From TrEMBL:
Residues 1-18 form the signal peptide. Keywords: Signal. One of its GO terms (biological process) is cell-matrix adhesion. PANTHER family: MAMMALIAN EPENDYMIN-RELATED PROTEIN 1, RICIN B LECTIN DOMAIN-CONTAINING PROTEIN. This is Uncharacterized protein. It holds the Pfam family Ependymin. GO terms for molecular function: calcium ion binding. It comes from Patella caerulea (Rayed Mediterranean limpet). GO terms for cellular component: extracellular region; lysosome.
Length: 214
C-alpha cells in the first residue's frame, strides 16, 4: 500500500511539472460559442451567442464580430481594436462608438506565473484530446481567466473569464463569459476585417469606460 501511495504521488508531481505555459500563434482566426451574463445597475442579463475573432499581435490589431442573443433582442456587434492608433471602435447594430484604447494588446502566451490546474481529456475512447488548464489574471483586461489549451500544440479550447469591471457594448458592466473555441485556424484570410467602418468616420473619441473584453 505504501508503494502504491508513493507511486500515485509521483504521478501527480510529474503531471504538474510536465505542464509548461505555451503560446498560441500570433496570427489566428477562430469561431467561438459564448454564454455569459452581465450585471449593471442592479439588472442581471443572461445572454448567449457566437463570435468570430481575428487576432494579429504582429500588427497589434484585433477584430471581434459578435452576435448576441439577449433576453428580448439580438445584437450584431463588431469590436475593432487598433492598438497602434490607440482606438477602439464598437459598432452595435450599425451605430459606431469610438473610444481611447490605453491598454496593451493581449499577449498570446499563457503567462509564466500562471497557475496550472489540471490536464483534462476531451472526448471518449480513441477520439480523445489532451489539454492543460491554467488560471491567471489577464494584464490586458484585468479578468481572472481559466484557459484550456491542447497539450501538444497550444490550440485554445475553452476560456472562462470573469471581470467585475469589464465594459460591454460601451457600458460599465460586470461580465462573466465562457468561450468555446472551434474552427481555429492559423493566419488571417482577409485583412479587410481590420478596416474601420465608414460609420465610424468623424465620430468623437470618448474616454474609455474600462478595459477591453478581449
Amino acid at each position: 500500500m505504501w508503494i502504491l501511495k508513493e507511486f500515485l504521488v509521483s504521478l501527480m508531481v510529474l503531471s504538474v511539472y510536465a505542464a509548461t505555459p505555451c503560446c498560441i500563434d500570433r496570427e489566428f482566426e477562430a469561431d467561438t460559442g459564448v454564454v455569459g451574463s452581465t450585471y449593471r445597475k442592479g439588472i442581471f442579463s443572461p445572454y448567449e451567442g457566437h463570435n468570430m475573432i481575428t487576432y494579429d499581435s504582429h500588427n497589434k490589431m484585433v477584430s471581434v464580430k459578435l452576435t448576441i442573443d439577449g433576453q428580448a433582442h439580438r445584437d450584431h456587434i463588431q469590436i475593432l481594436m487598433d492598438y497602434n492608433s490607440k482606438r477602439e471602435y464598437i459598432i452595435t447594430n450599425g451605430k459606431c462608438t469610438v473610444s481611447e484604447l490605453n491598454t496593451p494588446i493581449t499577449d498570446p502566451c499563457i503567462p509564466a506565473n500562471a497557475t496550472y490546474l489540471r490536464s483534462p481529456i476531451y472526448g471518449y475512447g480513441s477520439n480523445t484530446l489532451e489539454a492543460d488548464t491554467w488560471e491567471y489574471f489577464s494584464p490586458a483586461t484585468g479578468a481572472l481567466n481559466r484557459f484550456s489549451v491542447t497539450k501538444d500544440s497550444c490550440v485554445p479550447l475553452v476560456l472562462a473569464q470573469y471581470n467585475p469591471h469589464a465594459p460591454f457594448t460601451g457600458n460599465l458592466t460586470q461580465t462573466d463569459l465562457v468561450l468555446i473555441y472551434n474552427n481555429f485556424r492559423i493566419g488571417i484570410k482577409d485583412r479587410k476585417v481590420f478596416s474601420v467602418p465608414e460609420s465610424c468616420a468623424n465620430q468623437p473619441v470618448q474616454k474609455p469606460v474600462g478595459t477591453p473584453i478581449f
